[in-house]
Amino acid sequence: MNNPKEYPLIFYSQNPVTEQKLIDYPNSKTGFTESFFEQKLQKYFKSHILKDVVINDGRKFPYQPDYVFHYAEHNLFIDIEIDEPYAYISKKPIHIDDEKRNDYFLNKGWSIIRFAEIQITKYPELCCKIISEHIRNLTGENIWIEGFHELDELNIVKAWDFYEASTMATDSYRQTYLKFLKTINVQKSCVNIIADGIFLDIQIRKTKAVLENESSIKEFNESAKVSIFLEYIVPYIGHFECEKNFEGKIFIEFTIYISKHHSFYSFSFDTDFIEIENYIINCYYVRTEKMNCFEITNKIKDESLKQVVLIADDPAYPTLISDISSDELILVKKYRNSFMPSNYRYVNIDILIENSLEIKYH
30 falls in which pLDDT band (50, 70, 90)? Predict the structure, then answer.
């Protein structure tokens, strides 16, 4: 356990997990920030995140986690909590002493991660990195932290006492960061950039192998940086019609799908929200047990996405995207020996990768 006076608070149970039966238990008091963070959790940890559930042990007023990470393969349960310094309406100080609640879950063999509300609001990816590292520590599986390995460390937040929480309430402290959250949470992305992580990782590895034998190159990064990668994609987004919808900027989502059975160390997120010219880009990294090609094309069709930059190149895709208009799709694919159709606009992925590796020449 880290310093009990600082967030994130991380608790490891010393008890084995007893057989747990979780039952649905709707929560009418879900906080605004919890709904926002849920979008990140559901995309990063998808089928492992549970909400509105409690342990069915006969308690009349059961303790309800904000979110539960459940990994059946390892019999792992993590209680993920978001702590606010005071109640939004009543202004009453809260989360001053959660020891009794913590002991309940620890005695059940669960571990606990508690974030301060401001942390998940301003640094959602870094909070997901903390969760990923915790899963790695408990399971020994490095796959959970791939993609996060070059992110900065999450800023520590001092835990508050009753007096400090009361002062925060008087000063409307929560409004200083919730204003941003309320704005970003209602935005619908104008363009979705979606990447098949297996394809992307293979291309980065191949590029690095070629560059290692290039005498004119002095050095380059071990992994491609997402911010630089996106910087070179952004000009192509001008093909689409985009309205400025976020403080005079255009809102974009970038989602990478990667199978849990594949490594992904060649690509790294290096920031949370990325601002490039007139664009704000919100990044997601989705580890899935399904086939990437089906997961991606289902997302495009199920969510009726109309302006998509698809980073993929596989024999399965041409059939899957055959009914998507060429006006709605830009392909980022191999220049040579590509499986992808030729009737779409496309970008050569080699150039994007080389730039995002930040190559230094002699």
Answer: low
SS3 96: coil
Name the residue with higher pLDDT: 316 or 242: 316
Positive or negative, the CA dihedral 31, 32, 33, 34 is: positive
**How many CB atoms within 10 Å of residue 83?**
23
Q: What is the pLDDT of residues 346-356, one digit of tens each?
A: 999 999 999 99
Q: Report helix angle 175-185 to 32-45, nearest 10.
A: 50
Average pLDDT rounded to a whole number, residues 273-291: 82
Alpha helix (H) ranges present in the chain? 32-45, 99-107, 117-122, 124-139, 162-170, 175-185, 197-211, 226-233, 292-302, 317-320, 349-356
Cα 125 to chain centroid, rounded:
5
* Phi/psi at 308 (5° precision): -130, 135
Of residues 159, 139, 235, 223, the one with CA closest to residue 193: 235
Query: Quick one: 137 exposed, middle or buried, by C-beta within 10 A (0-12, 13-18, 19+)?
Result: middle
Q: What are 286-345's pLDDT values in tens digits?
A: 878 788 999 999 999 998 999 999 999 999 999 999 999 999 999 999 999 999 999 999
Please state, in angstroms and rounded to a whole number, the distance separating the CA atoms of residues 255 and 253: 6
Cα 308 to Cα 306: distance, rounded to the nearest angstrom: 6
Complete domains list, the chain, with CATH: 6-185 (no CATH), 191-361 (3.40.50)
DSSP string, 212-270: TT-TTEEE--SSEEHHHHHHHHGGGGGGS-----BTTBEEEEEEEEEETTS--TTEE--
Collect all residues with Cβ–Cβ distance below 8 Å to 210 and sequence separation of at least 6: none
Query: 343 CB contacts (<8 Å, ≥6 apart)?
Result: 326
For residue 162, the model assigns a pLDDT of 94
Distance set, CA 192 to CA 185, 283, 299 (Å): 16, 10, 10
CB within 8 A of 127, min separation 6: which ones? 8, 37, 40, 115, 119, 120, 154
